[in-house]
Amino acid sequence: MPSAFRSEPYNGVHPLLRSADDWRDTPGLAGIVERSSSYGNWGGPGNRVATENQPYIAQQRAQNPAYDEATDPRFVNDPRYAPIDGMDAAAERHDSGYNHDLRGENMFGWQGMRNVHEDDRRLVAATQAEMDQNGDKYSDDAISYSEGLRGFFGARVMGMDAVDWMGAKAHRAGEGVSDFVDQARGWESLGDAGRGLWQGAKGAGHFLADTGAEAWHGIGAAAGTLGSLGPTGMIRALAGFGDVAISGAGHLAGRAWDGAKSIGSSLFGWLSD
User: Fold this and answer.
1) In the chain, where are the structural domains located?
2) What does the pLDDT look like over 132-148, one tens digit per residue?
């Protein structure tokens, strides 16, 4: 076990190269990637408690799948595992949330992201609040880490919020088509059909205009938020959006197909009548 990690408040970025006094001592390229995305005792993949106490924690999880090392008194009162500053404390709460909410899913998969969506949102908000309050105390490397963290997890949150928004819009569109079909069943003349088609086109136009305005406003707000995080934040944001896009592609395809079948069924029923 590594002897000690240099727990410097406001400067807890791990060195990229393997070090004998750092508990994050994975060798090779994997270790470099791990350390580059880590901070303090809790930020990044895994945490110090889980790394240094693997057999004990594995035993606890086998007995209780909801076990949370972040709240285990055995570690809570040990200064070795205490968060080194406010950003690290936010990461500790994030780990604790994942222990309770991930429920065996992959954190990079669609259902995993869905399960921990609000944990990610709280992490971004807490980190932003810490930077707003104490940002001048943090080293440049620590600030850069915070930008990457907010970029990646913020993009995941924004991406899933956008998916939920699109899903709600698609649902409303489907309801609109169903209502239109129901009304069309009552048309008794070409005049009724003309008026009905005009009203339907006008309603669809308003819906598309409102939807476009909301989307443009959301894109502008997201760009402004992520743009303030600098190059590191933007690069990590691309990774976060990519995570959502890749894992959500199949999910969205399935929902779109179900929606298309529903709308097609409604239209076929109307045409049959």
Assistant:
1) 1-101, 144-272
2) 999 999 999 999 999 99
Taking Cα atoms as reference points, which of 128, 64, 152, 75 lies closest to residue 100? 64
Both tokens assigned to 121: 């949102």
Which of 161, 168, 155, 203 has its CA nearest to residue 183? 203
Q: Is the pLDDT of residue 15 over 80?
A: yes
Question: Helix 140-184 crosses helix 117-134 at what angle (to 10 degrees)?
Answer: 140
What is the distance between the alpha carbons of residues 117 and 157, in angstroms, rounded to a whole number? Answer: 6
The single residue listed with the structure tokens 């993949």 is 45
pLDDT digits (tens, 9 = 90+) for 78-103: 999 999 999 999 999 999 999 999 99
Is the distance from CB of 1 to CB of 23 less than 8 angstroms? yes
Spatial separation of the C-alpha atoms in residues 92 and 42, rounded to whole Å: 5
Amino acid present at 156: R
- The CA distance from 265 to 177, in Å, is 11
**Rg for the chain (alpha carbons), in Å?**
25
How many C-alpha atoms does 153 have within 13 Å on its Cβ side? 25
- Residue in 199, 212, 214, 204 with CA at minimum distance from that of residue 176: 204
How many residues can be counted in the chain? 273
Q: How far is Cα 194 from Cα 176, in angstroms, rounded to an integer? A: 18
Give me 243's structure tokens.
Answer: 């995570």
- Tokens 């409604």 correspond to 266
Residue 159 burial by CB count (10 A; 0-12/13-18/19+): exposed, middle or buried?
A: buried
259 contacts: CB under 8 Å, gap ≥ 6: 170, 174
DSSP string, 47-79: -HHHHHTHHHHHHHHHH-TT--GGG-HHHHT-G
Task: Give the phi and the psi of residue 39 in degrees, each rounded to 5.
Answer: -155, 135
